[in-house]
Amino acid sequence: MNAALVLFSGGQDSTTCLYWALKRFSSVRTLCFRYGQRHSPEVETARKIAEKTRVPFQVLDASIIGQLADSSLTNNAIPMDEEVPDKSCPNTFVPGRNMLLLTFAAVIARAHGIKHLVTGVSQTDFSGYPDCRDTFIRSVNVSLNLSMEEQFVIHTPLMWLNKAQTWQLADELGIFDIIRNETLTCYNGIPGDGCGHCPACKLRNEGLKKYLKTH
Length: 215
Ligand code: ZN
Hints:
Layout: E1 3-7, H1 12-24, E2 27-34, H2 42-53, E3 57-61, H3 64-68, H4 97-111, E4 116-118, H5 134-148, E5 153-155, H6 163-172, H7 176-182, H8 199-214
Helix pairs in contact: 6-8
The structure holds zinc ion.
């Protein structure tokens, strides 16, 4: 069966990945995680986009991730780093997040007989998150296959794209306006162009500016 499970948050990257997957796979499901993130309205944003594309939408409670260690993304009492510090991860990093989420996703995919997983991680506009790098994804792919005796394939369509190129991909997929107006990337929970000053907004808006300049 040519089916894929998209790890879906309703943000720019995973929404672009969802439409990318819809072009390539005959059947697509989405999986959205609640893990105590401060931008919790993203779950409702994700639900609306999934409804629009008529794909199954599942929300999994992964709040255990927020209980394991402090991150400014899951603890409102910690002010967010707005820049990437030298030689360390910004405090918006949630340790173990992608390892755990990909593991949860693989188990759910397996239950549905799905072997393709799609995630919007990218190492090009590197935010200092080690679990967004290509080597990590390849490594976890092997480990998931070994752990469940499966042949999962993790797809990362954005891995080598910068944010401007991700906007370009959205445009090529015919979803530029949907991404611009209906997705939620902002760590402060403001949809569309967002708050403008959190790290996620800065990255998204700088990419957009760069893309619009050349098109
Ligand atoms: Zn923001």
